[in-house]
Design goal:
This protein is an alpha+beta fold. The protein has one domain. 42% of the residues lie in helices and 14% in strands. The strands form two sheets. It has a two-stranded parallel sheet with strand order 1-4. A two-stranded antiparallel ribbon has the order 2-3. Strand 2 and strand 3 form a beta hairpin. The longest helix has 16 residues. The chain is elongated.
């Protein structure tokens, strides 16, 4: 799909869910501690350092599948306070990988 988009001049911008809509990971027992609400595996708890590590691992995995991406879309509207506090660190994280956001 990436090569098809490139052939017709489209730039693919991968979208990464960063705080909410993380059921694919949070439903697993190994990530239970990162849940905002223990019995509800949708949103990550933004105050836990392990949550930050999980988010950066997810971003790294997505970017490894998009080696030519110059941008990354992120969904993070669920935790505005956390976004303000971590925005600088997240920006450095992406810039360190040659990415803009």
């Amino acid at each position: 799909m990436l090569s098809a988009a490139e052939r017709v001049g489209l730039e693919v911008i991968p979208l990464v869910q960063t705080f909410g809509h993380l059921e694919f990971a949070l439903k697993l027992e190994e990530f239970r501690e990162e849940r905002e609400v223990p019995y509800y595996p949708q949103a990550i708890c933004p105050s836990r350092d392990r949550s930050w590590r999980l988010v950066t691992q997810i971003v790294d995995q997505v970017l490894s599948l998009h080696p030519k991406a110059r941008w990354v879309g992120r969904r993070a509207n669920q935790h505005l306070v956390f976004i303000v506090a971590r925005y600088f660190y997240y920006s450095l994280f992406l810039l360190g990988r040659g990415m803009a956001h």
